[in-house]
Amino acid sequence: MHALANKRYHKAAPLLLVLALLALLTGLGAVATSQSAEATTVSASDIEDGQKLFASNCATCHGIDAQGQDGVAPSLVGVGAASVDFQVGTGRMPMQASGPQAPAKPVQFTQEEISQLAAYVASLGAGPAIPTAEQVDPELGNAAEGMELFRTNCAMCHGSIGGGGALTQGKFAPSLMETTPTHIYEAMLTGPQSMPVFNNANIDEEGKRDIIAYLVAQRDGSPGGLSLGAIGPVAEGFWAWIVGIGLLIGSTIWIGARSS
């Protein structure tokens, strides 16, 4: 019986090997198809057009090869497409004048040109890619979880609901009330200016989307009435001090005047 089983095993071994190879080739084909689909989103002409745009608009500061210039602008090799999409897509780049940080301003390029610039810079070295629509969809996030993450990692600079705040040396954390979900995600990925980088080891993709869901939820207005600057208990305490203590002092003076 044992010999018969061994004989059957030896006959089936080639068939099992063929099936295993077919499964491996199928998996590799799926990966290749996925990679080719991604590659079609950025063509060689996009990179070439992006290089021309870079040479005429960015090379003055960042250098013709994007290696940067000491004391002028950093190297862009390895910053990835996400960094370009954020900086150029929010109007921070190109800068109009040097200063503590680049403020957001009207965008100077079309979305197609921004994509071409991002494609060129991404071709110089691996870096964070522009997030997908699914990664930044606030409807897929958990606002309650996002609140905890935001107040732990972001609120000390941006305020409790993303209203912004002052930093040192003339810098500031901008308001996030009108920032698009894509740009919020890209800022976490790339850490622009004074902001730290929050990679997936710090806040994973799901956490980033939860934060976006929380911030978007804050744009529905103030359900409690006046927002008082949307800076939380500080404004409420100030209001109580000025009005509440003021009324007590006024009442005390009035009672004292009547008694005399």
Characterise this structure.
With 260 residues, the chain is mostly helical. It contains 10 helices and 2 strands, in the order αααααααββααα. The chain has helices at 2-40, 44-57, 59-62, 80-89, 111-124, 143-153, 155-158, 181-190, 205-217, 233-259; strands at residues 165-166, 172-173. It has a two-stranded antiparallel sheet. Strand 1 and strand 2 form a beta hairpin. The longest helix has 39 residues, at 2-40. Mean pLDDT is 84; it is low at 1-7 and 28-40. It is found in: Cell membrane. Residues 45-125, 141-219 form the Cytochrome c domain. Keywords: Cell membrane, Electron transport, Heme, Iron, Membrane, Metal-binding, Repeat, Respiratory chain, Signal, Translocase, Transmembrane, Transmembrane helix, Transport.
Q: Can you give me a brief rundown of this structure?
A:
The chain is mostly helical and 260 residues long. Helix content is 56%, strand content 2%.
Number of helices: 10
The appropriate CATH architecture of the domain at 131-221 is: Orthogonal Bundle
Q: SS-based structural class?
A: mainly alpha
- Taking strands numbered 1, 2, ... along the chain, how are they ordered across the largest sheet? 1-2
SSE diagram, text form:
Elements: H1 2-40, H2 44-57, H3 59-62, H4 80-89, H5 111-124, H6 143-153, H7 155-158, E1 165-166, E2 172-173, H8 181-190, H9 205-217, H10 233-259
Antiparallel strand pairs: 1-2
Enzyme class: translocase
Signal peptide: 1-39
Organism: Demequina zhanjiangensis
